[in-house]
Amino acid sequence: MDGRTPEITKLFSDACSGDRSALARLLSLIERGGNDARTVSRLVYPKTGSGYIVGITGAPGAGKSTLTSALIAHIRSLDQPVSVLAIDPSSPFTGGAILGDRVRMQNHATDSGVFIRSMATRGHLGGLSLATSEAVRLLDAVGSPCTLVETVGVGQVEVEIARNADTIVVVVNPGWGDSVQANKAGLLEIADIFVINKADRPGVDQTRRDLEQMLELSDFTSEAWRPTILTTVGTTGEGADKLWNAIGEHRAHTQKDGSLAKRRDQRLRNELRSIIERRLEHRAREICTGERWDAIQNEMLAHTRDPWSSADEMLHGVF
Amino acid sequence: MDGRTPEITKLFSDACSGDRSALARLLSLIERGGNDARTVSRLVYPKTGSGYIVGITGAPGAGKSTLTSALIAHIRSLDQPVSVLAIDPSSPFTGGAILGDRVRMQNHATDSGVFIRSMATRGHLGGLSLATSEAVRLLDAVGSPCTLVETVGVGQVEVEIARNADTIVVVVNPGWGDSVQANKAGLLEIADIFVINKADRPGVDQTRRDLEQMLELSDFTSEAWRPTILTTVGTTGEGADKLWNAIGEHRAHTQKDGSLAKRRDQRLRNELRSIIERRLEHRAREICTGERWDAIQNEMLAHTRDPWSSADEMLHGVF
Questions:
Q1: What is the rounded CA–CA span in Å between residue A37 and residue B99?
Q2: DSSP-derived 3-state class of residue A171
Q3: Any CB–CB contact under 8 A between A181 and chain B?
Q4: Are B180 and B109 in contact (CB under 8 A)?
Q5: Residue B96 pLDDT
Q6: Calpha distance A190→B199 (Å, rounded)
Q7: Which CATH number fits the domain B50-273, given the four candidates 3.40.50.300, 3.40.50.40, 3.30.70.100, 3.60.15.10?
Q8: CB-based contact (8 Å) between B302 and chain A?
Q9: What distance in Å separates the CA atoms of residue A171 and residue A61, rounded to the nearest whole number?
């Protein structure tokens, strides 16, 4: 509790009543981190649990943004509201996020049933994953029934962010489906739904066979969800309805067999662990100052003490 | 000091005498981390400081491996030895590293003046950057005068690894040179040398102009190194000689004005900080067990305590 709490409480209450600029301001607080973000978290957390999260990931150029846009159009045609978080962990700058906003906002900017927001790395990579979870919870708490989380790129951080979804959609292209690539990115393991996007290009059947072959090598129990494979053409919107139905089927399946609840619990456990790591990193930054720090560093720079021994010396007595 | 120290000391002594299989085993110990890696670090560290490190980075598909191979061929034509570390942080699996080895080793595998090794992520991302630094120091200590560190991809981790070099080469392609892309990856800021690779394709002049324009926006002092821009064709080896000369010029410049020494000191300071962070993370993993951990997690899962407050509660009394 600090001086800003009443102001943030008011913002949250406004956001719950549908005030989008209040919502945008709260998201900025989350993105910025620090005490205000913690205050948002405390207010938001008890009100969460009803929103559904769809992660959309895949190699750069696979057409994720276009597909997401087509999916939004389909969801809106059913008169359902939808929120989108576009996450760009590869960008240490904010330029990417602004660009992403511009491109993606175009079609849906004036639709009050759609809320779109980009988030980019501010400093610590792990921080982006945590901030994404907070942002998703905020959207949940203010009443968004479904949030699409689109990640750019397929590094480990992107996979980590995509993993924090209830349904994970992995977008590939015809001809892209060689098993080395998919394995390399770690996508095969996390996909609930494979989308072969740009399916108007040649090679769809081969890619489908590749994916099916890969799935056959995996060891699914008879009750477990077996990843769906479907085709879309993001630019025309073809297949967006099938994708939305597949998401619904996966949701129903995991609600019924209890795996959704398990996945959500595991996610929270992982998040708590990440927060504890961050807290300790913060402590490390506090430790790494002062005369003792300078003295140990100088020994290391003089090559009389190696970095690992220097770290041990520095941490001696801290815990 | 533990039971394995005499064995590792022997391996290090053998590696210093030119035993490549001993060197490969030491690199595996570094990659694996833990106590053995620390033992290697302690042995190696006092003997380092004479080797030179060249980082080679750029977007996927820019032709870094081919260019690196051409550079190796040129360095060998001058009868100088060279080591290469190919780092793949985007791969959570070892498949990528093995593949990388295969492709790259082909041309130089039988040349005793070339040592090539791939490293992939084993678990923690920060760990790969630290392991790369250790591996580079080991190569330095066993007498390699120059190590090329090639990173795959341009995420934040890749930039972090590339940054740990004495000369940073950023590889772009004709037509790729739009400022948004380069800025997005954070490459503009870290490049000492820009290479426009695949310069047999159209668009070289435009890309050169783009890069020059970007450099003009930067504020270089008159004494500071101003990034070189040069063109290569990796597949034919054209321009590899110019690249090697440019690396030599950058090296001479930074040795003369003292910025090389400053950069190396800063690197060690950053490394020490990273190690301390890792030690604290390790401590976090120790904390996150036991009955108290379970109780706090259960409150969080019941939505009665938010994740950040749970973390505070967990860390209460730890430091």
A1: 43
A2: strand
A3: no
A4: no
A5: 37
A6: 39
A7: 3.40.50.300
A8: no
A9: 10
Rounded Cα gap, residues A82 and B45, in angstroms:
55
Task: Tell me if A165 sits within 8 A of A132, measured CB to CB.
Answer: no
Cβ atoms within 10 Å of A196's Cβ, excluding its own: 27
Question: Where exactly are the structural domains of chain A?
Answer: 1-47, 49-256
Confidence of residue B62 (pLDDT cuts 50, 70, 90): confident
**Of the candidates A8, A232, A98, the residue with the CA atom closest to the CA atom of residue B183:** A98
- Of the ranges A97-106, B17-26, B302-311, which one carries the lowest mean pLDDT score? A97-106
- Pure H helices in B142-258: 156-163, 179-185, 187-190, 204-217, 240-256
Rounded CA separation A18/B149 (Å): 52
Work out the minimum CA distance from B214 to partner chain A, whole angstroms: 15
Euclidean distance between CA atoms B231 and B238, whole angstroms = 8
- Rounded CA-CA distance B222/B224 in Å is 6
Q: Is A269 helix (H, G, I), strand (E, B) or coil?
A: helix
Q: Residue B123 is encoded by which pair of tokens?
A: 């678990």
User: Is the per-residue pLDDT at A125 higher than 60?
Assistant: no
CATH number for A49-256 (one of 3.40.50.300, 3.90.190.20, 3.90.980.10, 3.40.980.10): it is: 3.40.50.300
Residues on chain B touching A273 (C-beta within 8 angstroms): 284-285, 288
Element (H, E) at A265: helix A259-287
Distances (CA, A) of A56 to A122, A163, A191, A225: 21, 10, 10, 18
Distance of residue A77 Cα from the nearest chain B Cα, in angstroms: 34
Contact A28, A134 (CB under 8 A): no
DSSP summary character for residue A169: E
d(CA B239, CA B228): 13
Give the integer Cα–Cα distance in Å for B133 and B155: 18
Q: What is the dihedral of CA B178, B181, B186, B190, to 10 degrees?
A: -40
How far is residue B69's CA from residue B51's CA, in Å, rounded to a whole number?
A: 20
pTM for this structure? 0.64
Nearest-by-CA chain A residue for B152: A155
B139: its two tokens? 């190569």
Q: What is the value of ipTM here, to two decimals? A: 0.80
Is A157 in contact with B288 (Cβ distance < 8 A)? Answer: no
CB neighbours of residue B202 within 10 Å: 9
